[in-house]
Specification:
- By secondary structure, this protein is α+β, with helices and mostly antiparallel strands.
- Helix 1 crosses helix 3.
- The two termini are 41 Å apart.
- Bound molecules: zinc ion (2 copies).
- One zinc ion binds next to loops.
Length: 178
């Protein structure tokens, strides 16, 4: 049990330069917990959380990128059965949770909340390994172990019988609730 949520501790988000900075956004923690559940993870390792502007530039980023805003993490997701998820799997799950910033990395994945929090743009799906910036979607139809919809029976939709008259002809049928 972490001191921020069920699986996360404040110290995991701390800037690695030693400045002591960290203040992860509440939504970031919430979404990471959702990701944890959806992937039924054994653990999520944060390889980089907050970066102060100086450190961000030092590791090849920008002084104002999402890591400096406390809305981003780079993560590795360990599976319960052993091994780790591929970056593409993390990205797919993260997109379903709603993360607006997602970037594939080597064996890890960058996720951030730019869609909901103050940031220079509100959407970015990319690949940090080859510099691609306009990936449309990471969805490949993967069924994750934490997916609850899988064994849920299909909901029965309400239908109503309708009859319409048009040009002296009568049309009738069932209308399904949307
Ligand atoms: Zn720092
Ligand atoms: Zn990152």
């Amino acid at each position: 049990m972490g001191n921020l949520s069920a699986h996360f501790d404040k110290s995991e988000f701390r800037c690695q330069c030693g400045c002591g900075g960290e203040n992860p956004s509440k939504l970031l923690i919430e979404r990471l917990e959702k990701l944890f559940d959806l992937m039924d993870a054994k653990s999520i390792i944060i390889t980089s959380g907050y970066r102060c502007p100086k450190y961000s530039v030092k590791v090849g980023g920008f002084s104002s990128d999402a890591h400096t805003c406390n809305i981003a993490v780079d993560i590795i997701v360990n599976k319960k059965g052993g091994g780790t998820y591929a970056a593409e799997d993390i990205a797919e799950a993260a997109e379903r949770i709603g993360f607006g910033g997602i970037g594939l990395m080597n064996g890890a994945c960058h996720v951030d909340n730019r869609d909901c929090e103050t940031y220079i743009n509100n959407h970015w799906f990319g690949d940090e390994r080859d510099g691609r910036n306009y990936i449309k979607t990471f969805q490949r139809g993967t069924v994750f172990p934490g997916e609850k919809s899988v064994d849920k029976p299909a909901e029965k939709k309400k239908t109503v019988k309708v009859t319409l008259t048009y040009d002296d002809h009568e049309y009738s049928g069932l209308l399904e609730e949307m």
